[in-house]
């Protein structure tokens, strides 16, 4: 398959704080703090470009105060940015608290700002010109204007014969939205890329393989991302493959799932089978956790 990857999703400013010990309530905790470009949608686009996809495009919404910086960063990463400048809201900001212990786990404090104010008026069917695959960040499902955009974008993609993928993005926000609403909005999607926790939430099943199999009865291809345990590929109600993880020494797990998704989609666009694409995703995820921040 040839053609572009169009990603629609969030663009945010990440403030990454790698704290050097337990958080001390009411006083100071030493940390290494960096301000970096981020956002699940933007990260996916950058990792897809890094994996070798020659034409990656991104539709997102930002505030005027950081628009030029984000556009420069995306352009430098090889992504063609279609940025909508929000006249009222600032660019979304996420504070990433990263534990410097062995797991390098992270906690997010999220101010979505302009990122979830994408609306049907920001969409044009012309965005699909030359596009071979549309990817929607799951964060779009968590506000009313962007949910309306999801519906418009999926309908347009189906009318143009463009397959659609979705990464649910946030177990916490998914719980607030509700499983039934998410699955209804995802009707017509070709590929679903949940994390293990998101697959559990979407099915109620504790075993990730059972969850993947169940989801693949609703979505043609399901790939469950399991971090250090690799990935599961499920089709037509059955787990078809178990893809092993790549060994890595984690420094910051922020964006690891986005790295997997971007590399996976880039591989699909070059004709890879799902298993080969998932292996590419695992390789990108391993690279991502060994660096600070969510981008290549």
- CATH topology (fold) name: UDP-N-acetylmuramoyl-L-alanine:D-glutamate ligase
Number of helices: 9
**How many distinct folded domains?**
1
CATH class: Alpha Beta
Structural class category: alpha/beta
**What is the residue-averaged pLDDT?**
94
Order of strands in the sheet with the most strands? 5-4-1-8-9-10-11-12-13
- Intertermini distance: 24 Å
Quickly give the CATH architecture. Answer: 3-Layer(aba) Sandwich
| Beta-strand content estimate | 25-35%
Helix proportion range: 25-40%
Shape: globular
Give the topology string: H per helix, E per strand: EEEHEHEEEEHEHHEHHEEEHH
Structure description:
This protein is α/β, with parallel strands linked by helices. 33% of the residues lie in helices and 27% in strands. It is globular, with a radius of gyration of 18 Å. The protein has helices at residues 40-51, 67-76, 144-159, 171-177, 179-185, 196-203, 208-215, 256-269, 274-289, and strands at 4-8, 12-19, 31-38, 56-63, 79-86, 92-99, 106-111, 131-137, 164-167, 191-192, 221-225, 231-235, 238-243. The mean pLDDT is 94. The chain starts with a strand and ends in a 7-residue tail after the last helix. The protein has one domain: Ribokinase (UDP-N-acetylmuramoyl-L-alanine:D-glutamate ligase). The strands form two sheets. The protein has a nine-stranded mixed sheet, sandwiched between helices. It has a four-stranded mixed sheet with strand order 3-2-6-7. The longest helix has 16 residues, at 144-159. GO terms for molecular function: kinase activity. Its EC number is 2.7.1.-. This is Carbohydrate kinase family protein. Keywords: Kinase, Transferase. InterPro entries: Carb_kinase_PfkB-like, Carboh/pur_kinase_PfkB_CS, PfkB_dom, Ribokinase-like.
């Amino acid at each position: 398959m040839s053609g572009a990857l169009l990603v629609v999703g969030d663009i945010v400013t990440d403030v990454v704080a790698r704290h050097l010990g337990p958080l001390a309530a009411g006083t100071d905790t030493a940390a290494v703090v960096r301000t970096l470009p981020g956002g699940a949608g933007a990260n996916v686009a950058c990792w897809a470009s890094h994996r070798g996809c020659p034409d990656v495009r991104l539709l997102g919404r930002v505030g005027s105060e950081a628009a030029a910086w984000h556009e420069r960063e995306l352009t430098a990463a090889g992504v063609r940015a279609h940025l909508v400048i929000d006249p009222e809201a600032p660019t979304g900001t996420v504070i990433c608290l990263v534990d410097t212990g062995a797991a390098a786990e992270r906690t997010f404090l999220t101010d979505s700002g302009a990122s979830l104010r994408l609306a049907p008026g920001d969409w044009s069917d012309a965005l699909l010109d030359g596009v071979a695959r549309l990817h929607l960040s799951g964060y779009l499902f968590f506000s009313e204007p962007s949910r309306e955009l999801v519906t418009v974008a999926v309908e347009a993609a189906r009318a143009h014969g463009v397959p659609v993928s979705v990464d649910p993005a946030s177990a916490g926000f998914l719980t607030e939205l509700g499983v039934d609403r998410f699955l209804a909005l995802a009707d017509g999607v070709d590929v679903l890329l949940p994390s293990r926790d998101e697959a559990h939430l979407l099915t109620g099943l504790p075993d990730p393989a059972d969850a993947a199999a169940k989801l693949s009865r609703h979505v043609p291809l399901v790939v469950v991302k399991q971090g250090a345990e690799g990935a599961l590929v499920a089709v037509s109600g059955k787990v078809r493959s178990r893809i092993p993880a790549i060994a890595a020494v984690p420094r910051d797990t922020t964006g690891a799932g986005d790295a997997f998704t971007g590399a996976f989609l880039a591989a699909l666009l070059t004709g890879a089978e799902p298993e080969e694409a998932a292996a590419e995703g695992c390789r990108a995820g391993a690279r991502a956790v060994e660096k600070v921040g969510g981008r290549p």
